[in-house]
Amino acid sequence: MFPICASENEGGRGLIARGVVSSAEAIAKTRGIARQTPRVSVTIRRTALTKRKLGRSELKHLTDWNDGKPGTELNFKFYRQATNKIVGISDEVATFLGEFF
After folding, report:
1. 101 vs 3, residue with greater confidence
2. Which domain holds residue 71?
3. Which of 4, 67, 72, 78 is the residue whose CA sits 20 to 30 A from 15?
């Protein structure tokens, strides 16, 4: 299972649910573009909704990238660059996120 976040860059509110990937498919690169980020389309079956908020405002103050805190890892991975993304998380972050469901 993994956390699902609604992009705050597109009007979402951060962490919204947890789910299981039911399918994943690579999206073909566009011809004529030299540098492209790999893209994937995923279908997710939701297994739980969040019980409390976790978004940019809750993580913004966590900026000491070497402090080892789960919230800091999330801030770094999600908000350092304003793009939609799929990221891997540590076991500590997975445990931390479990507190929101």
Report:
1. 101
2. 2-98
3. 67
